[in-house]
């Protein structure tokens, strides 16, 4: 079902405009539902609001309703900052103008940022039921073609949907395969899924589910076991298993069980290339020995799970990094959809698999680190190094293995 598509796997369409330009009303008009809060009061939308929906023929998407780019005051400027951060995850932008607007200074500023980031953009003039704007003047000032709509009367909304679908055809929304490009039909993939106190009750975590589905999509065969049953599973299917995929934290327990002629890797290493750039993460691992005493390291996770004693990000990663580097380090943490705006204080970033953010946002984080020459390492790559199995875990990825310096 459409609603079962995870948010991180949907194209992200963000609407930018001034307060009271009709961004929320436009979302309601596009979906023909009252799903966004609408008010004549300026600044009704204070934080970005995510709406999962379907726009045919594009399919499942996330439409992001943002705060006004002209918001005022100290609090207003914080809202504008949050709006601008949305650009890091935007696949397609809609720049919305009020038909009665004459000053385009805010629109010029946001449009320049959209263009700088290479994001496709559709210009829309709303509220044409209230006035007849000189659309040519808008187009001349902003060097952008505009569609004229009325979110209230629905005039022009169908044309806008058609334009969204047409523009989407030129955008590569498709993410790379997780594992499907590494297997052939009938290949057996053995998944090791530890069930411990950190595992969600009654279900698998998203990377496990998505990897299993990717195998099915590429006509492979899945076998799923806990680590305690791995030895028996290997005996039963010894000559049929091509790849064993495990939780990275279990590397230390299972690396001796899996024969050397069977590929061994982890969900997080698969996600290092699915969501980001595996080679860059391996480069980061090469830099661990360059850390010095007192260096500050950022540990970043894209979700906001409840941390328990022994948490991988809070407790284990810091301990392991100090062991591997031989240095006493300082640590800071970030979680959720944002990372610190200023990364200059950090000497290294360790990042989770990124299953809760889209590829565009993950690549934005990687690129920001690269711009500052800050090594960034994915959890899976790091734990492969910690458990002395990274060299083997990269056998499936020759380009990344070539970069690795054990």
Folded structure, characterized:
With 406 residues, the chain is of the alpha/beta class. It is built from 15 helices and 14 strands. The strands form 3 sheets. It has a 6-stranded mixed beta sheet, with helices on both faces. A 4-stranded parallel beta sheet has the order 8-7-9-10, with helices on both faces. Helix 8 (251-254) links the parallel strand 9 and strand 10. The radius of gyration is 24 Å and the shape is globular. Mean pLDDT is 87; it is low at 36-41.
User: Count the helices. How many?
Assistant: 15
- Shape verdict: globular
Q: State the CATH class of the largest domain.
A: Alpha Beta
Number of domains: 3
Count of strand segments: 14
Distance between the termini: 45 Å
| CATH fold name of the largest domain | Rossmann fold
Annotated CATH homologous superfamily of the largest domain = P-loop containing nucleotide triphosphate hydrolases
Largest sheet: 6 strands, mixed
Mean pLDDT: 87
Topology pattern, helix = H, strand = E: EHEEHEHEHEHEHEHEHEHHEHEEHEHHH
Strand content bin: 15-25%
CATH architecture of the largest domain: 3-Layer(aba) Sandwich
Strand order of the largest sheet: 2-3-1-4-5-6
Q: What would you report as the Rg, rounded to the nearest angstrom?
A: 24 Å
Unreliable stretches: 36-41
Structural class: alpha/beta
Relative helix content: 25-40%
């Amino acid at each position: 079902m459409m609603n079962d598509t995870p948010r991180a796997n949907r194209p992200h369409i963000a609407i930018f405009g001034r307060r009271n330009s009709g961004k929320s009303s436009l979302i309601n008009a596009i979906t023909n539902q009252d799903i966004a809060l609408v008010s004549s009061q300026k600044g009704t939308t204070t934080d970005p609001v995510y709406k999962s929906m379907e726009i045919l023929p594009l399919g499942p998407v996330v439409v992001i309703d943002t705060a006004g780019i002209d918001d005022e005051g100290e609090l207003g400027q914080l809202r504008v900052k949050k709006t601008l951060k949305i650009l890091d995850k935007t696949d397609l932008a809609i720049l919305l103008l009020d038909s009665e607007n004459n000053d385009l200074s805010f629109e010029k500023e946001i449009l320049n940022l959209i263009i700088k980031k290479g994001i496709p953009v559709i210009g829309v003039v709303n509220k044409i039921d209230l006035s007849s704007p000189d659309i040519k003047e808008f187009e001349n000032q902003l060097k952008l073609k505009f569609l004229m709509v009325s979110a209230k009367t629905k005039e022009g909304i169908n044309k806008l949907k058609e334009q969204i679908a047409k523009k989407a055809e030129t955008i590569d929304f498709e993410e790379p395969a997780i594992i499907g490009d590494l297997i052939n039909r009938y290949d057996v993939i053995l998944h090791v899924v530890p069930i411990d106190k950190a595992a969600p009750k009654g279900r698998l975590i998203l990377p496990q589910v998505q990897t299993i589905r990717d195998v099915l999509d590429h006509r492979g065969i899945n076998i799923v076991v806990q680590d305690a049953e791995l030895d028996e599973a290997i005996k039963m299917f010894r000559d049929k298993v091509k790849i064993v995929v495990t939780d990275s934290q279990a590397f230390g327990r299972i690396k001796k069980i899996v024969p050397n002629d069977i590929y061994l890797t982890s969900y997080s290493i698969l996600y290092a290339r699915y969501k980001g750039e595996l080679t860059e993460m391996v480069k980061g691992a090469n830099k661990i020995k360059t850390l010095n005493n007192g260096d500050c390291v950022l540990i970043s996770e894209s979700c906001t799970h409840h941390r328990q004693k022994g948490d991988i990000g809070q407790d284990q990663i810091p301990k392991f990094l100090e062991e591997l580097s031989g240095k006493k380090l300082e640590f800071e943490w970030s979680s959720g959809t944002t990372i610190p705006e200023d990364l200059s204080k950090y000497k290294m970033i360790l990042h989770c698999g990124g299953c809760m953010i889209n590829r565009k946002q993950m690549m934005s984080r990687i690129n920001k680190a690269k711009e500052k020459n800050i090594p960034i390492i994915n959890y899976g790559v790091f734990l492969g190094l910690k458990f002395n199995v990274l060299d083997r875990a990269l056998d499936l990825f020759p380009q990344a293995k070539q970069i690795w310096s054990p």
